[in-house]
C-alpha cells in the first residue's frame, strides 16, 4: 500500500477517531508525526500507564533552560491517538518536524511572545507537533491548528520568540465562509466532528486550493523542506508509510520539490544542544484564550465528544447539572430532560447533524440556569474548558530539583491540581508549617504554585490562607531553578543569597529577610542580615527607612512562631527606628499633598511595627517623636490629623484634648482644604470614633454645615474619599446619629451604668485574661 497523508485539525476528536480507523485499515510499516525529532526516544513513555493526557513535550536549551518550548497533547489530539495506536501495534514512530535544536541555535532577532508580561505564563507560538506555523488564528481553527506548539525561546515568565512573519490566512475560516458559515468552529464540528467520516482527501484538496493564492510563510517553507528530507530518507527503507501532520502542510509534502532546493534552505543552520521530557499539561493552557494561538476554544467539550460514544447531549447536560448542584443550585432530572429536548430541537431547526456546544449551552442557560449568565459561565469554566491536569510517571527523566519537589509534594500530601483551591494552614501543626515553608521557598524561586489569599490578615500569625493552582510552565521554572541547587531548600537558599548581594535598595533586603523567616532559609540569614546592615547604613532617606521597618518588626515578632533564630536582628531594627525618629522632623516640613500622603502612610507602617516590638523604650521614643511633630504649626493637615489619631489610639491624649485639637483646624478662617485634609488624616482607617463620640461627631457636623458654598466643591472629594473608606455599617450608624434619635426610641444615658449587671461579667473576663479582677472602691 502506498504512503498515506492524514492532514488533521489538531485537538479535533473527529480527526482523532478518523486517524485511528485509517491507520487500522492501512497497517503502515512506520508512522511519521509532526513534532520535534529530539523527542523520538520519549515515544516509548506513551505505553506507560502513568502518562495521562493532557501532557506536553518540554524542550529546552541545555545551557539556558529559560529558552524552552512546549508541544501539548490531549486525549482527543489526532497525534496522540496515532502514537498510541502505533505503540500498541509495535509500529515505529518518528517525529519529523524541524528540530528544535535549529531554533535554539538560530541567531534571530527576538520579539515578544504572545503572552509576554504575564507572570508565570510563557507565550505559545503556533508551531510544534501539528503546529500550524506562526500566525494561526486563536482557537486553532486553521486546518493544521496545533497538537503542540512551542512556547517562545525565552524565560517562562514572558519569553521571547524568534521574529517570524505571520500567515494572514485562516484555512478553516476560508472553508467555513465558502460553505456559508460565519463561525469556523461550528463548520468544522458539522463537517468533521459530528459526522465521523474520514475527509482527509477532501481537506487536502481544499488546502491545496487555498495555498495556491496565499502568501508563503518562510518558517513554513523551512519546516516543510526538513519534512520532505525526512520523507525521502524513510522511503529508502519503507514503502507503507503513514504521515500525520497539519492539513496545511499536506500539499507541500505531496508536491515534488528538488532535493537541492530543500538542501539550500537548510544549509548553514546551526544546532544548539537541547533536552526533552514529558510534563503535565492542563486544558486551560490548551484553550485559545490562554494565548495558545493554535488552541481550541472548548477543550472540555472536545474531551466529552471523544470519550462519549453515545448519548452525547444528555451526558453533557447531566455533568452540567452536577456542576450546578455542587454550587447549591437546585437542578433536577426534569431540568436535564427538558434541556436535552431543547438542544436537540435547536439543532433540528438549524439543520445541524447533532446538537453542538452552542445548542447545549443555550439550552442549559434557558432551562437549568434560569437565564443567569453567571451560572452559564460556571458551566463553561468547569466543563467547556475544564480543569483537567495530566500526569507523568515518577520514573520520567527530570532535573533533581523537580524530583525533590515531587517527593515533598507526596510527603506533605499536596497534590498539584489545575483547578484553583484554597488551603488553610495552622502553623502550630508540624505538617502545615512544612507546607508553608515549601510554598514560600517555591515563591523565592519564582514558582508561585501558592499565592497568599487576598483576604489574609497580616503575616506571621498561627494561621495562613493560600490559593493553590498548578501551571504547566512551572516545569520550565524548575529546570531554570536547578541552576541554584538540586533541592528546593538549597536552590531557594542560594537564590536568596544572590538576591541579597545584588539588592540596590533597603526595601529589597528587608523583603528578603522576611522571606528567610517565612521559608526557613537559615543558611541565607547571615548573608541577608549583613546586606541589611550595609544598606541601612548607606540609605539616608527617611521614607526608605520607614518602608523597611514593618518587615523587620514582623520578623522579630513572629520568628518564634516558626521556630526561626532571629538573633542579631533586634539591634539592626532598633538602630533603624532611632534613625527614623532623628530624621522624621526634617522630612515633615513643606510637604505637597502627595508627599504628605507618603509621610502619613509611612508613619502608619512604623506605628504598627512599633506596636509589634516588645521594647517599651523604643515605643516611648517613637511616641515622643510623634508628640513633638504634633506641636508644629506648619505641619500639613493630613499627617497632623493622623498624628492626633495615633496619639489618641495610644492613650496619650484624652478625649477632651482630641476634641480641642479638632476644633483648631475646623474654626472659621482655616482654609477648608486644610481642614478636610486634617479630618481625612484623623479618620482614615475607620469611623467608630464618630459613632461613639457625640461631641466629636457634632464638631465635624457643624464644620461641614459652615463650609462656604464656593469651597464645598474642593472639599467634597477629600471627604468622599475619607468616608468612603468606612465600613457600610459605620457609615449607616454615623448617618443615623446625625439624623437624630428615631421616633419612639429612647436614648440611653451614656453616664448611667448598671453596676450589678457589670459585675456579673467579671468572673468570665478574669478567666479569659488569666487573672483575678476586683472592683476598686472609691475612697
UniProtKB/TrEMBL annotation:
It comes from the Bacteria. Transmembrane segments: none annotated. Residues 108-168 are annotated as: Disordered. Pfam families: DUF5682. InterPro entries: DUF5682, LolB. Residues 128-138, 145-160 have a biased composition (Gly residues). PANTHER family: OUTER MEMBRANE LOLAB LIPOPROTEIN INSERTION APPARATUS, PTHR30634:SF14. This is Uncharacterized protein. It comes from Actinoplanes awajinensis subsp. mycoplanecinus.
Amino acid at each position: 500500500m502506498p504512503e498515506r497523508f492524514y492532514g488533521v485539525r489538531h485537538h479535533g476528536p473527529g480527526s482523532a477517531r478518523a486517524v485511528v480507523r485509517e491507520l487500522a485499515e492501512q497497517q503502515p510499516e512506520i508512522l511519521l508525526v509532526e513534532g520535534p525529532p529530539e523527542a523520538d526516544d520519549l515515544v516509548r513513555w506513551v505505553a506507560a500507564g502513568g502518562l495521562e493526557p493532557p501532557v506536553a513535550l518540554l524542550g529546552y536549551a541545555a545551557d539556558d533552560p529559560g529558552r524552552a518550548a512546549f508541544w501539548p497533547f490531549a486525549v482527543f489530539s489526532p497525534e496522540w491517538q496515532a502514537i498510541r495506536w502505533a505503540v500498541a501495534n509495535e509500529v515505529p514512530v518518528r517525529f519529523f518536524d524541524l528540530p528544535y535544536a535549529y531554533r535554539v541555535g538560530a541567531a534571530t532577532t527576538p520579539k515578544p511572545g504572545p503572552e509576554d508580561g504575564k507572570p508565570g505564563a510563557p507565550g505559545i507560538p503556533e508551531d510544534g507537533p501539528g503546529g500550524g506555523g506562526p500566525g494561526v488564528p486563536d482557537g486553532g481553527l486553521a486546518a493544521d491548528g496545533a497538537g503542540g506548539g512551542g512556547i517562545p525561546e525565552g524565560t517562562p515568565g514572558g519569553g521571547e520568540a524568534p521574529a517570524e512573519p505571520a500567515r494572514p490566512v485562516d484555512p478553516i475560516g476560508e472553508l467555513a465562509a465558502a460553505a456559508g458559515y460565519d463561525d469556523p468552529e461550528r463548520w468544522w464540528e458539522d463537517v468533521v466532528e459530528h459526522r465521523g467520516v474520514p475527509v482527509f482527501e477532501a481537506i487536502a484538496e481544499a488546502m491545496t486550493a487555498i495555498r495556491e493564492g496565499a502568501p508563503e510563510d518562510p518558517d513554513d517553507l523551512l519546516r516543510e523542506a526538513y519534512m520532505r528530507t525526512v520523507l525521502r530518507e524513510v522511503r529508502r527503507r519503507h514503502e507503507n508509510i503513514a504521515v500525520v501532520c497539519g492539513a496545511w502542510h499536506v500539499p507541500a509534502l505531496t508536491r515534488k520539490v528538488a532535493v537541492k532546493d530543500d538542501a539550500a534552505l537548510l544549509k548553514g543552520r546551526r544546532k544548539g544542544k537541547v533536552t526533552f521530557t514529558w510534563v503535565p499539561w492542563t486544558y486551560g493552557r490548551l484553550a485559545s484564550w490562554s494565548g495558545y494561538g493554535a488552541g481550541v476554544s472548548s477543550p472540555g467539550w472536545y474531551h466529552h465528544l471523544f470519550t462519549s460514544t453515545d448519548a452525547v447531549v444528555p451526558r453533557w447536560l447531566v455533568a452540567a447539572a452536577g456542576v450546578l448542584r455542587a454550587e447549591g443550585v437546585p437542578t433536577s432530572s426534569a431540568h436535564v430532560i427538558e434541556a436535552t429536548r431543547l438542544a436537540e430541537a435547536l439543532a433540528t431547526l438549524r439543520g445541524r447533524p447533532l446538537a453542538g456546544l452552542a445548542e447545549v449551552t443555550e439550552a442549559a442557560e434557558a432551562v437549568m440556569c434560569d437565564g443567569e449568565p453567571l451560572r452559564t459561565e460556571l458551566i463553561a469554566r468547569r466543563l467547556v474548558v475544564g480543569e483537567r491536569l495530566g500526569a507523568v510517571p515518577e520514573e520520567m527523566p527530570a532535573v533533581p530539583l523537580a524530583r525533590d519537589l515531587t517527593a515533598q509534594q507526596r510527603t506533605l500530601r499536596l497534590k498539584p491540581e489545575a483547578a484553583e483551591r484554597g488551603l488553610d494552614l495552622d502553623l502550630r501543626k508540624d505538617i502545615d508549617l512544612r507546607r508553608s515553608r515549601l510554598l514560600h521557598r517555591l515563591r523565592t524561586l519564582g514558582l508561585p504554585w501558592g499565592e497568599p489569599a487576598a483576604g489574609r490578615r497580616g503575616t506571621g500569625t498561627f494561621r495562613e490562607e493560600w490559593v493553590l493552582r498548578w501551571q504547566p510552565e512551572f516545569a520550565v521554572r524548575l529546570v531554570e531553578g536547578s541552576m541554584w541547587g538540586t533541592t528546593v531548600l538549597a536552590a531557594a537558599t542560594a537564590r536568596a543569597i544572590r538576591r541579597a548581594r545584588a539588592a540596590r535598595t533597603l526595601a529589597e533586603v528587608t523583603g528578603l529577610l522576611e522571606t528567610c523567616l517565612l521559608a526557613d532559609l537559615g543558611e541565607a540569614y547571615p548573608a541577608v542580615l549583613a546586606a541589611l546592615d550595609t544598606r541601612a547604613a548607606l540609605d539616608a532617606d527617611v521614607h526608605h527607612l520607614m518602608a523597611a521597618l514593618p518587615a523587620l518588626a514582623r520578623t522579630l515578632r513572629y520568628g518564634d512562631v516558626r521556630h526561626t533564630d532571629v538573633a542579631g536582628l533586634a539591634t539592626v531594627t532598633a538602630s533603624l527606628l532611632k534613625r527614623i525618629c532623628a530624621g522624621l522632623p526634617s522630612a515633615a516640613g513643606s510637604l505637597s499633598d502627595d508627599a504628605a500622603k507618603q509621610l502619613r502612610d509611612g508613619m502608619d507602617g512604623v506605628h504598627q511595627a512599633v506596636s509589634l516590638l516588645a521594647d517599651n523604650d523604643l515605643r516611648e521614643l517613637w511616641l515622643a517623636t510623634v508628640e513633638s511633630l504634633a506641636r508644629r504649626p506648619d505641619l500639613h493637615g493630613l499627617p497632623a490629623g493622623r498624628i492626633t489619631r495615633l496619639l489618641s489610639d495610644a492613650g496619650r491624649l484624652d478625649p477632651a484634648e482630641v476634641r480641642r485639637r479638632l476644633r483648631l483646624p475646623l474654626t472659621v478662617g482655616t482654609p477648608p482644604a486644610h481642614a478636610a485634609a486634617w479630618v481625612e488624616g484623623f479618620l482614615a482607617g475607620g469611623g467608630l470614633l464618630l459613632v461613639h463620640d457625640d461631641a466629636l461627631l457634632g464638631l465635624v457636623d457643624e464644620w461641614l454645615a459652615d463650609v462656604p458654598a464656593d469651597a464645598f466643591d474642593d472639599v467634597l472629594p477629600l471627604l468622599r474619599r475619607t468616608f468612603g473608606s468606612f465600613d457600610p455599617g459605620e457609615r449607616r450608624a454615623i448617618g443615623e446619629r446625625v439624623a437624630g434619635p428615631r421616633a419612639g426610641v429612647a436614648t440611653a444615658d451614656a453616664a448611667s451604668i448598671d453596676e450589678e449587671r457589670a459585675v456579673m461579667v467579671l468572673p468570665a473576663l478574669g478567666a479569659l485574661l488569666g487573672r483575678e479582677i476586683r472592683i476598686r472602691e472609691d475612697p
